[in-house]
Design a protein that fits this description.
Layout (H helix, E strand, L loop, with lengths): L2 H26 L5 E5 L2 E8 L8 E5 L6 H12 L4 E5 L15 H14 L5 E6 L2 H11 L4 E7 L12 H6 L4 H16 L1 H9 L8 H4 L8 H21 L10 E6 L10 H8 L4 E5 L6 H4 L1 H12 L1
Helix pairs in contact: 1-6, 3-4, 6-9
Length: 308
């Protein structure tokens, strides 16, 4: 068997395995909410009702590699009844279609259209990590729709250096398809548990986090390509957009861990405190990149304060 034929056979096997793995993942983690047709693309969201005759609403936006179950797991139980809760899959992630929402600003526009669809006038927005970039973009572009902002371990400012190699590879037009349709699923699923633990480090990961957050959904090829484009394109976007943060006037709380090695607080969180007038910065000692879980009490208190 020639080398070329051998490689083609291996690629075919990996492709078939990936298709099988996608079916397994989707059967195990089906959509948790409902769909809205937003700008020609399906947007998946979960709508948890609040108290009767209370129009207070909180919109939650997850970070890279995630889906709405991530923020749902952190906040749904503790905030049910305090307000109407909207958990959304960012465009291209979870079960939301990508459409043409490539930048955080374009994704913010999708959230505005979703609020229009649901007849919601104003919201408190909660964003974790990369999701914070579209939350602050929303606050700049649609200030009249914002009651307040809670930004958790935010990724919002230019930073030195690049991103992990697999994001760069997966975001490429042709090579990215080959990579995600063959190699990604077997290697990604094998490293899922350890990867999730590294996001929580140095804090312990909740024992049921990987299952409860449906983290495996990101290893479907088209989803990972969307995720990779978000990560690989973030630095360029925030380099151009971050000077506008000073336009934000909404009450803002930033919660970060001083041991976050994924998104450096000294660049992003400190930058938001400096640029958003009146922003409150809460630094949690010894906490890593998941203050939404590890600092849940502080985050829930901040949401309730912003609702008032």
């Amino acid at each position: 068997m020639s080398v070329v034929l051998f490689l083609l056979v291996v690629a075919a096997i990996l492709f078939a395995y990936t298709r099988w793995q996608v079916l397994q993942i989707e059967a195990k983690f089906p959509p948790a909410g409902q769909f809205a047709n937003i700008a020609g693309a399906k947007l998946h969201y979960l709508d948890v009702p609040g108290r009767a005759n209370d129009d207070a609403t909180v919109l939650f936006v997850h970070g890279a590699s995630g889906n709405l179950n991530d923020q749902r797991g952190a906040f749904e139980e503790l905030l049910t009844g305090a307000a109407r809760l909207i958990f959304v899959d960012r465009p291209g992630l979870g079960y939301s279609e990508r459409g043409e929402a490539e930048t955080p600003a374009e994704q913010a526009e999708r959230y505005r259209l979703l609020l229009d669809e649901l007849n919601i006038e104003k919201v408190v927005l909660v964003g974790h990590s990369l999701g914070s970039s579209s939350v602050v973009a929303f606050a700049v572009l649609f200030p009249e729709r914002v009651e307040g902002l809670l930004l958790l371990a935010p990724a919002t400012h230019p930073w030195p250096g690049g991103v992990s190699w697999y994001y760069d590879v997966a975001s490429l037009p042709v090579i990215g398809h080959l990579f995600t349709e063959t190699i990604l699923a077997p290697f990604g699923m094998a490293s899922l548990e350890q990867g999730a633990k590294s996001v929580f480090a140095p804090d312990p990961m909740p024992v049921d986090y990987v299952e409860a957050s449906a983290a495996a959904l990101v290893f479907r090829p088209s989803v990972f390509r969307s995720n990779a484009r978000d990560v690989a394109g973030l630095n360029e976007f925030v380099t151009g957009f971050s000077p506008r943060y000073k336009e934000i006037k909404a009450p803002t709380v930033v919660i970060t861990g001083n041991k976050d090695s994924i998104v450096l607080p000294s660049i992003h969180s400190a930058g938001l405190e400096r640029e958003i007038e009146g922003a409150e910065l809460i630094v949690l000692e010894g906490v890593g990149h998941k203050p939404d879980y590890v600092g849940r009490d502080e985050a829930v208190s901040a949401v309730k304060a912003l609702l008032k």
